[in-house]
Amino acid sequence: MKLPSKPMAEPTRLLVVEDDRNLATGLKLNFELEGYTVDLVHSIRDAGAHLIESGKYAALILDVMLPDNDDGGFVLCRKLRDAGDFTPVLMLTARDRTADRVRGLEAGADDYLVKPFELDELLARVRSLLRRRDWEQQQSGETAQKMRIGAVEIDFAARSASRGDEEIKLTALEYDLLRYFADNPGRVLDRQELQEKVWKLDNYPNSRMVDNFILRLRKHLEPDPKEPRYFVSIRGAGYKFMPDA
What we know:
The chain is α/β, with parallel strands linked by helices. The chain folds into two domains: about 15-140, Response regulator (Rossmann fold, 3-Layer(aba) Sandwich), CATH 3.40.50; about 145-240, Orthogonal Bundle (Arc Repressor Mutant, subunit A). About 40% of the residues lie in helices and about 20% in strands. It has helices spanning about 20-35, 45-55, 70-80, 100-105, 120-140, 170-185, 190-195, 210-220; strands at about 15, 35-40, 60-65, 90-95, 110-115, 145-150, 150-155, 160-165, 165, 190, 230-235, 240. Strands 2-1-3-4-5 form a five-stranded parallel β-sheet, with helices on both faces. A four-stranded antiparallel β-sheet has the order 6-7-8-9, with no helix packed on it. Helix 1 links the parallel strand 1 and strand 2 (about 35-40). The protein is globular and about 55 Å long.
């Protein structure tokens, strides 16, 4: 039997969207044993209504395949991001193809966990999402909220980016990565540091994850992504952000 950890002074509220009612009940129980407050729904429609009625959550645990839409998790996550809601989202799904993982991240998910999974890993990933959120809130009080990269205007507080009248859509993780670069201009950042500071992952072997996100930032922000001026590769060392290039 799992023992509860020390209760938090102010319980953190999670929204779990899962159509498997047995799994959903088990998730709710274990999150509550960890000290969280949990709201539980089973469809996109109920999730949408709950988000409107209950306000902001610390994080969403979101199944991909839901009764009202087999791609419901992707759809709901994209709607949240398009509406400017960057609540951390962890997707749960039986779909283990790389294409599905990429689709989830492109929809704006912060993390993606394949079923079946170990409970300890799920809890660790949720804690990682919340640490990342807390770090972002701390950073927002310490550094400038707006910056310009070439012709692109970025507002970290509003989570918005634009090139003239053109809106540039960035995911929550892309904003987190960009913010870390902005806080460390001109310094070479290796993949391990970026994984630890942005993704909150220690000793994670998949360095291509960082490379893929750098490619995405270049695609969004560089005048010519094939000849990067701002996000520069340092061979054998990592990446350097050059805002005044």
